[in-house]
Amino acid sequence: MKNNAIKNIAAYACLVSVTAFFGTAFAHVVLEYQVAPAGASYKATFKVGHGCGASPTRQIAVDIPAGMRGARPMPKPGWTLEVQRDTLAQPYTSHGRTITDDVVRVTWTAKTADDMLPHAHYDEFVLVATTPAQAGMVYWPVRQACADGRNDWIEVPKPGQKLSDLKSPAAALEILPAAGAGAHHH
Description:
four-stranded antiparallel β-sheet
């Protein structure tokens, strides 16, 4: 009897996890890992689970949140890559160099109609960056352009508002306090 109860709890937990995954991952663009330590390298994997209506995705543009540093995108076969840089209001030092400008937007664009992400398919768009030194929430606005139409996932919750209350929420990342003295800092 005890084993059956444990199996039922495990099965229920799996069902809840799968339901939560499909309920959120395919409702909008989200990050695969939604928590990261402060001041650490972070692999941002943006999960795209649908197009615009039935229209395929032809472009994904990600705005880099303030405080995220040194963003470097992963190229995708069949997609061009554009990296937009801007002058920083507050320069920082990395590996002994003063950094005065940084990446503010990364855009992947399908080269041809055959390279577009069909509405019925799923894909991921990846970049790495260093997280801010301070704990807190950061939001990644993502603009999804399709052959017909667009979805702009850019809404950020106001104080007291939940991300789930928003119609078009930006991808959210919770920055946790740094791991301690052994952490690698830039």
